[in-house]
């Protein structure tokens, strides 16, 4: 049981002035009396402060800890804020006095302290703590004063935590005093100290608050998936430093939460501790009560089947980026960007990633351009999603699963692409002709295609895509030199 004791003599006091309000408004204090340090304990004490600074203190932005040799100081202490030029003291491990402005310049090159300067650097006033003789204890969150430096031989420690988050400051103080009160002459006792806030209110710290929570044993069993008696669960929780006992109807467990466990906020945290004490590996694996059997998403299943057969037809699969530049899907294909219904990225990092692709063709043409040294013919395909604006959807856009194939050789090879389309339709069980949900191709035009060499594909009564020979301008814009034919269809209607 951790105890807060009021000293027989004068209680240490920290007075906060109103100047601190805009920088670091909160401070909490405590005293560890008659502590015995060894080399290991001292190093551990420093290390604990560092660890707390990094995690709960968020690199000192929320809380900064200062520990001082109380025998070198005399209270009451004052926590105030002053202009940097008005603060002058000898900082930790330095031999002479510096003003706060000079210290900021010195520490800009210090690998350890330079990360904390930005917290107060541009503020008109810097926080500072003085004792009754005007000795500077610290300039939080940057550096402590050398005068009150603690050593292995220090017997009485004054601890102050200043910050912008009052709750976290109290938690940090509780953690430090509970961890090291073990080494005090009166073990597990902490001497109280007072803080006077600018509004005149007086608070005594550390709070070392114990609180009680009630959790039903059947709830723990149900959530963890075990069958333990309430007595056993109370024992498990006690092992986790949460003193527990069964009360009431024999199903209620009363848990005492010590000040060392600030992480216990809700009943689920207690249940998690019970599971850890029981041992995750000891929980029996059981089949869930709900009867569900997983199934592959139909669209992905169709995609997988098509990919295998495209490869069997002699085409190589390419995987390209879902984002591309505006030129790729508009200018290079002879379209206007507004006609593409493309989804624009609001803050693109590079010119290559400005929009979500509306067609798979540019990605494949860029892949061919990057592999021009490979022996001809180049036969590539991709089955992936494209994104189109759609105001009827809750997110304002929707995906379509497209299949695109490209043939690149000394001759256009339109018959190869046409043959591939027939093979795809055969695999999808769509017969040629308009009858019985079949497919037909009809002459069409498109800015990306050679005039008279473009056809629109209709299947089951709707247009699903185009095939044809690409326009020489398109080929040139993608830095290619040979003719190229392609097909691109939407495969979703075939599900």
TrEMBL record:
Coiled coil: none annotated. Pfam families: B3_4, B5, tRNA_synthFbeta. It comes from the Eukaryota. Keywords: Aminoacyl-tRNA synthetase, ATP-binding, Cytoplasm, Ligase, Magnesium, Metal-binding, Nucleotide-binding, Protein biosynthesis. It is found in: Cytoplasm. InterPro entries: aa-tRNA-synth_II/BPL/LPL, B3/B4_tRNA-bd, DNA-bd_dom_put_sf, Phe-tRNA-ligase_IIc_bsu, Phe-tRNA-synth_IIc_bsu_arc_euk, Phe-tRNA_synthase-like_B3/B4, PheRS_beta_core, tRNA_synthase_B5-dom. The keyword ATP-binding applies. Its cofactor is Mg(2+). One of its GO terms (cellular component) is phenylalanine-tRNA ligase complex. GO terms for molecular function: ATP binding; magnesium ion binding; phenylalanine-tRNA ligase activity; RNA binding. GO terms for biological process: phenylalanyl-tRNA aminoacylation. Residues 208-285 form the B5 domain. Its EC number is 6.1.1.20. Gene3D superfamilies: 3.30.56.10, Bira Bifunctional Protein, Domain 2 (3.30.930.10), Phenylalanyl-trna Synthetase, Chain B, domain 3 (3.50.40.10). Belongs to the phenylalanyl-tRNA synthetase beta subunit family. Type 2 subfamily. This is Phenylalanine--tRNA ligase beta subunit. It comes from Neophocaena asiaeorientalis asiaeorientalis (Yangtze finless porpoise).
């Amino acid at each position: 049981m951790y105890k807060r004791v009021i000293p027989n003599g004068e209680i240490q006091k920290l007075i906060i002035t109103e100047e601190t309000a805009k920088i670091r408004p909160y401070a909490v204090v405590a005293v560890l009396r008659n502590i015995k340090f060894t080399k290991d304990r001292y190093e551990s004490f420093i290390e604990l402060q560092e660890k707390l600074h990094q995690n709960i203190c968020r690199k000192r932005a929320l809380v900064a800890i200062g520990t001082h040799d109380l025998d070198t100081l005399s209270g009451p202490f004052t926590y105030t804020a002053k202009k940097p030029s008005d603060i002058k003291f000898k900082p930790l491990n330095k031999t002479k006095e510096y003003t706060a402005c000079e210290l900021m310049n010195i520490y800009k090159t210090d690998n350890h302290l330079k990360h904390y300067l930005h917290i107060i650097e541009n503020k008109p006033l810097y926080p500072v703590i003085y004792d009754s003789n005007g000795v500077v204890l610290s300039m939080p969150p940057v550096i402590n004063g050398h005068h009150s430096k603690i050593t292995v031989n220090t017997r009485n420690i004054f601890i102050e935590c200043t910050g912008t988050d009052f709750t976290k400051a109290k938690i940090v103080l509780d953690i430090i005093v509970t961890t090291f009160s073990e080494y005090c002459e009166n073990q597990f006792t902490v001497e109280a100290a007072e803080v006077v806030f600018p509004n005149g209110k007086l608070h005594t710290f550390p709070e070392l608050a114990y609180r009680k929570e009630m959790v039903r044993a059947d709830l723990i069993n149900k959530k963890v998936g075990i069958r333990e008696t309430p007595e056993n669960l109370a024992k498990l929780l006690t092992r986790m430093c949460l003193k527990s006992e069964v009360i009431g109807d024999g199903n209620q467990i009363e848990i005492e939460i010590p000040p060392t466990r600030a992480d216990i906020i809700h009943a689920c945290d207690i249940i998690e501790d019970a599971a850890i004490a029981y041992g995750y590996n000891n929980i029996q694996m059981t089949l869930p009560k709900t009867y569900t059997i997983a199934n592959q998403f139909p669209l992905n299943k169709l995609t997988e089947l098509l990919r295998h057969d495209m490869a069997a037809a002699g085409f190589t699969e390419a995987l390209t980026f879902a984002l591309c530049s505006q030129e790729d899907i508009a200018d290079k294909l002879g379209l206007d960007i507004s006609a593409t219904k493309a989804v624009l990225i609001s803050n693109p990092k590079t010119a290559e990633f400005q929009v979500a692709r509306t067609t798979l063709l540019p990605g494949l043409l860029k892949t061919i351009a990057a592999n021009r040294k490979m022996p001809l013919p180049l036969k590539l395909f991709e089955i992936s999603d494209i994104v189109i604006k759609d105001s009827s959807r809750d997110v304002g856009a929707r995906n379509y699963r497209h299949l695109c194939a490209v043939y690149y050789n000394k001759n256009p090879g339109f018959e190869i692409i046409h043959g591939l389309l027939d093979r795809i339709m055969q695999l999808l069980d769509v017969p040629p002709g308009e009858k019985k949900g079949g497919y037909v191709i009809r002459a069409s035009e498109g800015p990306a295609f050679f005039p008279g060499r473009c056809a629109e594909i209709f299947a089951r009564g709707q247009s699903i895509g185009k095939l044809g020979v690409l326009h020489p301008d398109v080929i040139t814009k993608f830095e290619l030199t040979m003719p190229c034919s392609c097909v691109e269809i939407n495969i979703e209607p075939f599900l």
